[in-house]
Specification:
By secondary structure, this protein is α/β, with parallel strands linked by helices. Helices cover 40% and strands 13% of the residues. Strand 8, helix 8 (202-210) and strand 9 (215-217) form a beta-alpha-beta unit.
Length: 269
């Protein structure tokens, strides 16, 4: 088996027919997933990636981690069926405080644009646009989507609290609530955490690791090699592109040399 030297991590938010920020259309998402399958990539789990970064196990040369942020209803409506059909799996970093309860939904479901979704969340109408726990449990049971933490409240505590000790305490409560909710509903420890808006600092990392999170995901686009810290995992922002864009990005970020050259040219680390 040819072994991976670097593993690209894709970042999605919405898969929806309503265009807007951080959104790809259902047609584009299907085309991108078909590219992954056709090019022979293996969609790995977060624990697979963590073991690779920690030097505990190898991965096939063509490996990719597919991630979603927040936990929108459209992930269930549009992304999940495609992943299941193609035999791929993905990870959702869910804002647990936005997840509702009630029966899993079916039929025609509203999947509005990002701006509308955020307005619904602010107005306390999260159930209209976010996932429910039974939907999460069904996707996990199918072995298609795995759920981890995107905090409980999606709050940028660095913007809310000036005092460092009080800020650390607020973050710790937020992360503990998220961890506990995932444990209660899914019956396991969630060791993977994605930072809201990609922001983190040394205090954030210290709080997260003290609570047992072993892998921390950012919005930085650096290459993930054996030398990458699991506390600073880079991801690739996906785009509404159906040409060879994704195939090129996968090839670049699967190569330590190409990836570093590319990010250096873009002024990224």
């Amino acid at each position: 088996m040819s072994r991976a030297r670097a593993v690209p991590v894709l970042m999605y938010h919405h898969v929806s027919p309503n265009p807007g920020l951080v959104t790809v259309s259902p047609a584009t998402f299907r085309a991108q997933m078909e590219t992954i399958a056709a090019k022979g990539y293996r969609a790995v789990s977060p624990d697979d990636l963590l073991a690779f970064l920690q030097g505990r196990s190898d991965l096939p040369a063509k490996s990719v981690l597919i991630t979603f942020d927040d936990g929108y209803l459209d992930n269930y409506v549009y992304a999940y069926p495609v992943l299941k059909e193609l035999g791929l799996k993905a990870t959702v970093f869910a804002v647990t405080g936005w997840i509702g309860d009630g029966p899993a939904r079916s039929g025609e479901l509203p999947c509005p644009d990002h701006k509308t979704c955020m307005a619904k969340v602010r107005d306390g109408q999260t159930d209209e646009v976010m996932l429910r726990w039974p939907e999460i449990e069904a996707m996990e049971a199918a072995g298609v989507m795995e759920f981890h933490s995107h905090t409980h409240s999606h709050t940028r505590w660095d913007k809310q609290i000036a005092d460092p000790a009080a800020r650390r305490a607020a973050l710790a409560r937020d992360l503990a609530q998220s961890r506990d909710a995932l444990r209660e509903r899914l019956g396991r420890e969630a060791r993977h955490l994605c930072w809201p808006q990609g922001y983190f600092d040394p205090d954030y990392v210290a709080v997260a690791t003290e609570l047992g999170f072993a892998a921390l995901y950012t919005t930085r686009r650096h290459v993930n090699t054996r030398h990458t810290s699991p506390l600073d995992i880079g991801r690739i922002v996906t785009k509404e592109r159906t040409d060879n864009w994704l195939a090129r990005r996968l090839a670049i970020y699967s190569s330590p040399v190409l990836g570093r050259l590319y990010t250096a040219m873009r002024g990224e680390s």
